[in-house]
């Protein structure tokens, strides 16, 4: 049998892949990440399915449930918010399943930062402005950042910066990025992206921290910093250029 690590998207229940929806509907066991996964998706579980909230479970307890389901010949839909490739804590589960000889597959989902960009109505890679995106976070008491991955070091490229899980450290983020981006650099914070209670804040590195505090945003938010957020007068992409040679097939 198979454990499916499913990206359940950023919050809106309809931002999930068709593949993921089909797997959920066919899996007799579903483990989901508490309030981060929309409750509407759980309605897709088949009648009589065992549905388990993992919010208060330890890693060992979660893995034990996955292994038990496999031993019973049951597929498992393991729902994670966003996309499993980014800050999902899937890696440590996969490591244990591989050690136990349990088959698994990863089903991609819509990551929070793309939902945040959609809410802002902005492309994060604009010709002549920025063609790179840095996806990162700030150090917390739970997980330290590797050496060389601090915001000051990462910001030297001037690329579009996306900081996850950092709303509670917005002062630190603004201060450390100002060194390379400047106080006037556009910055935005999107909390609960794609959900009914979505909050969108726009400003600069000089003003965004106060906006975040005034809005009471402390978690489930994405911080985006870069000139792309207010880019104007940039060159058109070569993709649709009239000078580009095109074939007929």
Automatic annotation (TrEMBL):
Lineage: superkingdom: Bacteria
Any single GO BP term: methylation
Name listed for the protein in its UniProt record: Precorrin-4/cobalt-precorrin-4 C11-methyltransferase
Annotated ranges, domain Tetrapyrrole methylase: 2-208
UniProt entry tagged with the keyword Metal-binding: no
Keyword S-adenosyl-L-methionine: yes
Gene3D superfamilies registered for this protein in UniProt: Cobalt-precorrin-4 Transmethylase, Domain 1 (3.40.1010.10), Methyltransferase, Cobalt-precorrin-4 Transmethylase, Domain 2 (3.30.950.10)
């Amino acid at each position: 049998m198979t454990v499916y690590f499913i990206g359940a998207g950023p919050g809106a229940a309809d931002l999930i892949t068709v593949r993921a929806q089909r797997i959920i509907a066919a899996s007799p066991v579903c483990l989901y990440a508490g309030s981060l996964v929309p409750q509407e998706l759980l309605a897709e579980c088949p009648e009589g399915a065992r549905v388990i909230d993992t919010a208060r479970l330890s890693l060992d307890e979660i893995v034990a449930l996955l292994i038990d389901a496999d031993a019973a010949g049951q597929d498992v839909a393991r729902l994670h918010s966003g996309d499993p490739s980014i800050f999902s804590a899937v890696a440590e589960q996969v490591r244990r399943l591989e050690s136990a000889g349990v088959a698994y597959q990863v089903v991609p989902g819509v990551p929070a930062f793309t939902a945040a960009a959609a809410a802002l109505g902005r492309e994060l890679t604009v010709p002549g402005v920025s063609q790179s995106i840095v996806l990162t976070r700030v150090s917390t008491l739970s997980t330290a950042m590797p050496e060389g991955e601090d915001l000051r070091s990462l910001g030297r490229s001037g690329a579009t910066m996306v900081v996850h899980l950092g709303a509670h450290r917005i002062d630190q983020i603004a201060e450390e990025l100002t060194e390379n981006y400047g106080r006037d650099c556009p910055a935005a914070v999107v909390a609960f992206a794609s959900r009914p209670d979505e909050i969108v804040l726009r400003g600069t590195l000089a003003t965004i921290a106060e906006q975040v505090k005034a809005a009471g945003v402390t978690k489930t938010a994405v911080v985006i910093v870069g000139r792309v957020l207010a880019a104007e007068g940039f060159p058109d992409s070569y993709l649709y250029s009239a000078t580009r040679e095109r074939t007929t097939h």
